[in-house]
Amino acid sequence: MRKNGFARHALIETLHTVQSSFGYLDDDAIRFVARSLRVPLSQAYGVVTFYHYFNLKPPGRHTITICAGTACYIKGADKLIGTAQKRLGVAAGNTTADGEISLMVARCVGACSRAPVTLLDGEVRGEMTSEQILAALERWTVE
Amino acid sequence: MTIEELEQLAISVRRENAKFDYEVNVCMDLACASQGAGAIKEALEQAGQASGKNILIRRTGCMGPCSHGPLVRVDPAKVLYSRVKTENAEKIVGSLGGAPVAELQCDLAEHFEGQVRVVLENAGYIDPGKIEDYVSRDGYKALLSMLTEMTPNGVIHRITESGLRGRGGGGYPTGLKWGTVAKAAGDTKYVVCNGDEGDPGAFMDRSVMEGDPHRVIEGMAIAGYAIGASKGFIYVRAEYPLAVSRLTAALREARRLGLLGMGICNTTFNFDVEIRLGAGAFVCGEETALLASIEGRRGNPRTRPPYPASSGLWGKPTLINNVETYANIAPIIRNGGKWFHNMGSERSKGTKVFALTGKIANTGLVEVPMGIQLRDIIEKIGGGVPGGHKLKAVQTGGPSGGCIPASMLDVGVSYDALLKMGSIMGSGGMIVMDDTSCMVNVARFFVEFCMTESCGKCVPCRAGTAQMHTLLTRIADGHGSMEDLEMLEDLCVTVKETSLCGLGQTAPNPVLSTLKYFRNEYIEHIKHKRCPAGVCKVSHAEEVTA
Fold this sequence. Notes:
The structure holds two protein chains of two kinds. By secondary structure, chain A is of the alpha+beta class. Chain A has helices at 11-22, 27-37, 41-50, 70-74, 77-88, 130-142; strands at 62-67, 94-95, 101-106, 118-120, 123-125.
């Protein structure tokens, strides 16, 4: 916040910084940011809920993000999502009950030439198959 | 820094590079990096040291044909190696000065033949982290020579003369836009670069920002001089962390050399750029929503006029252009407006970068002159549809564009021709679909995208896209009727004509264009309860839920 001179228009930047430090934005964090930047809490909360990038819930220990951009979709990303949902027993956008693995769906990470693309804890993997996803999830559960 | 100092620097960098006998360029763009390009570079460095040869090993931005990655190019022999593995490093180094490694060599002559590289001229030749590399390829020359030799009006005149049109999709003449902002009243003006490449399936802006960040910054600075602004913002998607860090580093370097900041090139021109992060909202690609987002608010679009050219950021006149538009500016200033004007078709000048993806042999980035036949892009440059499948359609413009059927490929690519076919140029995503893609399903996918991305401010878009999605789902599941089809068409027109911003106005395009060209597929789903491509799970149940 100091870096941006406590500027009110740097709200989104500040929220990014908070999320990258804590993994998500809880009520306390949003309240704190809003008070420090002197923006109404309603605006801060509105911004957090408007943009997909901000999470209100803590993420799991591992995160698998399946890209569902057009190129990935054409190449069968929906099947990958189905596989992962079945294996983890949670719907996309949620975390398993034990807090281990989050399943996310992204709108294009920009690696379309390698579609379908999946991010395993932020690492880009191209040309994924259902088997590779199951293997990756298996590795995480064993750990 | 003065122009003489800049030229001195360029000469010394070139001299440094000439000291090496060989150059090994490793593509480290996202696609190649995800296949271990980093490890390959290390292996090459080790092998290079062990061999005792005098080699410059350089990381570069995207070389283009990503499907053949990881790519390594050896200069001065100009040999391109594809699908390189770490264990190939010694062989590549060993072959320097001799015959190239045959089994790794790839023949992409046809892929490169039809291309003209303006925006991507440095892609694969410079290290994006080194400003010196950019300077050695005439970087910042346009900015400094312009500052000493041209008036702001002269710059605008040259851009107008070039016939450059906005590369973000709309195709508004860039020179005209600059002229409007320059004439707008007010002391404070802003330059904004739209790097919110939300269109899924497109990644050329990411590639330019990551592979050649200085080109964008130089374009913005030139725009700043032309319109009388001293402050610029680059709005980048948060999904592109590498682009953000490359741009941040590039800005730092440019300030260090005095190419940004106060009194650039000992003139009175001040200019600096700040980066603003998006946070995953497609609608923020719309200019008024983007401005709201830069101001730290929800990305809701507002009605125009007033256009940002007269009232943009914090109510000040603001110039908004896309990444690729700015990337075209420096070459135009350097080579003149006529040079650019001579490329392309009658009403669309210059070149366009397309992100070729989907069911096609050579996926990746291509840059072609406007007016090139769509068929040439797909068959020659793209290498056609692999696996013996038949080309069905080409989708351009993302969720705002349409599907062009295979029968209409013999058309020159230009803003107007694509618009006439019910699609748009868009930012440059080009997704190829073959006979395993169901057009009803594709239309539903895009409508679902627009439905979730709709900001919810205006009713036609918020409710209309949801209803369209319901209808399309019903048809895809085999519960649809011919009345549904009629209703869908009717709804499309309503949403198109009454929505507030570009997102809603263009959201029905994928549906309308597939209805126009692939109506039989819809009817097949409705009447015969079957999906010709075998994608949709069409229900054969008799009871039809209304």
